Amino acid sequence: MNRKRVLDRAESTFWLFDRASSMNFAVYADGRGLLDRDLLVQGLEEIRNRMPVLQASIGHDQANAELFFQDATDQPVALREHALESFESSQYNQIVGDAIMEPFAVDESPLCRCGLLQGPDRFRLFLVFHHSIADGRSGLDLLRRLFSFLAGQDLPDSSAEFPGGMHSLLESESGLAPELEGSPELESHPAQPVSFFEKRSATVRTNLDEIKLNSGETVQLKENCKSHNATMHGVLGAALLNATLDLHRRYQNEGDTGSMTGPDGPDNALHRLALASPADMRKGLRSGQSDLALYISLITSTMDVKAGDVWGLARALSEDVHRQLKESALDFYRLLPDPARYLKKPDPGKAYAAFLQRLPQAVALSNAGPVEAFPGPSNDSWKVDHVAFSVHPSLSQIAFVAATTYEGLLTLTIHMDAARWPESGPAEFKDRIRHWLQWASSP
Q1: Where would a tag sit more exposed on the chain, N or C end, judged by fewer CB atoms within 10 A?
Q2: φ, ψ for residue 193, nearest 5 deg
Q3: Are 59 and 409 in contact (CB under 8 A)?
């Protein structure tokens, strides 16, 4: 075959994000039992054969300032195995974090890798993707297909062609034709910097951690959201921004003890912070629902955050995300420069990194919502009991937090570049998020 398609605005933008600093993402499943290594290799080949973008590389045409999918050599999805003596979540998370940070080379194919962490009676299976070919929802769906194959189930057929670009599909199928021309626009009142987050370091130290709420806490949190007219995404975002403010106040006081005194002192001070929310655009499409593809936008909500205000902030975030999804869901791509401006350069990533570091800082929150239980084998030799995903934050993101709910248990994965934080900062951030979630989920 000799298939070829130019990457659209969304795919090209995320390619540039990745060239500036890794934006790969991982989906993973933890479980009990032993996975069959040979069957896994067969399953990886099966899904590669059914997904056109897993048979492609991304080429860069500098002269025409464009990127394109093209058929590549018939290479299998790489499988990396780790035999572990015990299940230590910190060790598992570090392996996944390191795998996310490993870049895909220009023209590399497939743009997906697999890792198997196998202990005596537990495992973690993960897939790492280049973000231009997939998003969280389609990545989780592909992981489900892989486990369906391992469980002995038949896989659905897929199109033989590369999936269509998001912008062209939305325009042709729903009449949504966003204005993409013109100069980038910045907010008139952007988010303020935070005291603890440093400029990019020459060395990246990936830090991937998790917070889990049990089924009782998750149910109570949902009920509390209803009674406070907020969404789960809203309250999770409020917990993240309050945790960010807590750390900002602490480290600001360390550096300048007089800066937070007076009538606008710590208890009443407002700080303007931003929450960036990836938004799944598949609801506007008739086709492509099951394609491995990038069909997302990014909604940024900039709020004046008052310490301890969780439910008021949760309602404001809920309403703002809903409004932007309805009125301006694709503005993210208009507000950024045309990718062609950078694709003309010999080193697009370096120039784009300089641009990204001028953007206001934000905490990113991607919420996949409830994930349907994965299938298991008839002989019960293994069972998936935990599913999650993670993305390394872009250069302007303080942290990237991903939420999934699996079998009633809510998991937040928290991904940071620890080189840009104080030594104890990542652990403190996790503790403050947990504090606000426990407060919000109390009866």
Answers
A1: C
A2: -65, 160
A3: no
The H or E element that residue 79 is part of is strand 78-83
Domains of the chain and any CATH numbers: 4-179+189-258+265-440 (3.30.559.10)
Q: Count of H helices and E strands in the chain?
A: 12, 14
- 258 pLDDT above the threshold of 70: no
Cross-strand partners of 178: none
Distance between CA atoms of residues 324 and 297, nearest Å: 11
Q: What is the pLDDT of residues 18-56, one digit of tens each?
A: 999 999 999 999 999 999 999 999 999 999 999 999 999
Asked whether the CA dihedral 193, 194, 195, 199 is positive or negative, the reply is negative
The whole-angstrom separation of Cα 417 and Cα 348 is: 22
Q: Which residues pair with 304 in a beta bridge?
A: 272
Mean pLDDT across the stretch 108-119? Answer: 96
Element (H, E) at 172: helix 166-174
User: Can you tell me the distance from the alpha carbon of 51 to that of 288, in angstroms, rounded to the nearest whole number?
Assistant: 12
- Amino acid identity, residue 387? V
The C-alpha atoms of residue 282 and residue 289 are separated, in whole angstroms, by 6
